[in-house]
Design goal:
This protein has no helices and ten strands. It has 131 residues and is mainly β.
């Protein structure tokens, strides 16, 4: 079991071709989970399953939140195991959950090498993280 909140340094910053896989189990009575890619002044990519609203919200924060994006559906289920795979390209973060691509989030913060922290917070148990 890996402690949550989980935080790891991305040595040398993010680059196209870099991927992150997290396997775990959603808590039985979840409120929210967040998968964040952070830079010095904010969050380049915030992937936020919200069980209290039954939706996923994607956004960026640079002193204030930008316009929210809403991928279709809720790919996570309370009490159930999951695998999330986030792949960085030149233009976007591509997100797959349990083997299905669920969203492509266009980069708003384009200095990818300045994105140097990956974190997971919220109502989840983590068994495995691979970067």
């Amino acid at each position: 079991m890996i402690p949550v909140p989980y935080r790891s340094i991305i040595n040398g910053g993010l680059k196209p071709g870099k991927s992150f896989t997290v396997r775990g189990v959603v808590s039985c009575n979840p409120h929210r989970i967040a998968f964040n890619f952070r830079h010095l002044l904010g969050i380049a990519f915030h992937y936020n399953p919200r069980f209290d609203e039954n939706k996923v919200v994607c956004n960026s924060w640079d002193g204030q939140w930008g316009p929210e994006e809403y991928p279709a559906g809720m790919p996570f289920k309370a009490g159930q195991p999951f695998e999330i795979y986030i792949f960085c390209t030149d233009h976007s973060f591509n997100v797959c959950v349990n083997g299905v691509q669920v969203h492509s989030y266009k980069h708003r913060f384009c200095s990818l090498n300045g994105i140097d922290v990956f974190e997971v917070t919220g109502d989840v148990q983590i068994n495995h993280v691979e970067a």
